[in-house]
């Protein structure tokens, strides 16, 4: 099976689509082109662990990353049960082998679990495409991306737009993939993980604005200088900081994005006037 996100083609082998997440299956395509990234799944009773030729690069509750000769292995851990459920392993042949516990098969239908195996942020970053934590709204065939910390009201504000502003709908309630275009503009692309919103569509639109949300009693749109835009983006873009070279390239990309896209801060309440105030400001 092949999956396409933005212009990037992934091939997934060795797994029955019946145990893949419905959101991921939306991105399946019939395409004869060679895939940009090839994944090969294996259901096993015992997971293969990295040998001592691999160096541990990074560790947190849900993942341990090893490196060797520019390649990575990742141990995937369920933080609730402290249980190892999968191994991601890059090989010299360019194919990525993904091992999962057979007893864990039913959990493969969960968006976040399945996509943790693919480690797409690593491969998309090589192609200058990055994942932004945001509510992705389509407005008059353009994208408005509401970003900021969890719980700030991104999804709530997007819902208000759909209620009070014509020609709007939510494409994804949790994330989007930002991809550069040859003319210097950027596209927002649908993503196969939708978070608690459950909203996931296979759509793409040119970015009209990225809006960093704040809670306030009164509605006020503020412009940001370049460094403020850069810093805010850096908190919400997925970057593998254990990889020094990849991190530097991501910083360069963030600076370009901050320089070329309309990025504002919006302190607002959640009353009907909130989306109207922002819409008027963005049209100006």
Quick take:
This protein has 284 residues and is α+β, with helices and mostly antiparallel strands. Helix content is 24%, strand content 38%.
Description:
The chain is of the alpha+beta class and about 280 residues long. The protein folds into two domains: about 1-120, no CATH class; about 130-284, Alpha-Beta Complex (Phosphoenolpyruvate Carboxykinase, domain 3), CATH 3.90.228.20. It is built from seven helices and 17 strands. The longest helix has 17 residues, at about 245-260. It is globular, with a radius of gyration of 20 Å. The model has no long low-confidence stretch (mean pLDDT about 95).
Keywords:
284 residues, alpha+beta, Phosphoenolpyruvate Carboxykinase, domain 3, 2 domains, nine-stranded mixed β-sheet, five-stranded mixed barrel, 17 strands, 24% helix
Structural class: alpha+beta
CATH architecture term of the largest domain: Alpha-Beta Complex
Count of the separate structural domains:
2
What would CATH call the class of the largest domain? Alpha Beta
Global Rg: 20 Å
Low-confidence stretches: none
Q: Overall pLDDT, averaged?
A: 96
> Using DSSP, what is the number of strands?
17
Following the backbone from N to C, one meets helices and strands in this order, namely EEHEEEEEEEHHEEHEEEEEHHEH
Strand count, sense and closure of the main sheet? 9 strands, mixed
Shape: globular
Biggest sheet: strands side by side, in what order?
3-1-2-4-9-8-7-6-5
Binned, the helix content reads 10-25%
How large is the share of residues in beta strands?
A: 35-45%
**Count of DSSP H/I helices:** 7
């Amino acid at each position: 099976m092949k999956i396409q996100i933005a212009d990037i083609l992934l091939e997934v082998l060795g797994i029955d689509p019946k145990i893949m997440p419905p959101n991921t299956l939306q991105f399946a395509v019939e395409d004869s082109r060679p895939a940009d990234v090839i994944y090969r799944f294996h259901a096993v009773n015992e997971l293969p662990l990295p040998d001592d030729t691999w160096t541990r690069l990074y560790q947190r509750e849900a993942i341990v990353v090893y490196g060797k000769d520019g390649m990575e292995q990742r141990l995937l851990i369920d933080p609730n049960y402290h249980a190892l459920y999968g191994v991601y392993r890059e090989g010299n042949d360019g194919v990525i082998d993904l091992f999962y516990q057979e007893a864990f098969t039913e959990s493969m239908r969960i968006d976040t679990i399945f996509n943790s195996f693919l480690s797409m942020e690593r491969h998309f970053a090589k192609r200058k495409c990055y994942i932004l934590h945001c509510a992705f709204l389509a407005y008059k065939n353009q994208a408005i991306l509401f970003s900021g910390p969890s719980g700030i009201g991104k999804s709530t504000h997007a819902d208000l737009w759909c209620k009070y502003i014509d020609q709007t709908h939510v494409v994804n309630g949790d994330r989007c993939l930002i991809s550069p275009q040859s003319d210097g503009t950027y596209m927002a692309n649908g993503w196969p993980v939708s978070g608690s919103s459950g909203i996931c569509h296979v759509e793409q639109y040119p970015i009209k604005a990225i809006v960093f949300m704040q809670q306030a009693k009164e509605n006020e749109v503020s412009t940001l200088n370049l460094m403020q835009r850069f810093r805010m983006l850096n908190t919400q873009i997925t970057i593998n900081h254990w990889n020094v070279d990849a991190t530097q390239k991501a910083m360069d990309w963030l600076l370009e994005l901050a320089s070329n896209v309309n990025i504002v801060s919006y302190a607002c309440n959640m009353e009907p006037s909130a989306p109207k105030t922002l819409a008027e400001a963005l049209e100006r």
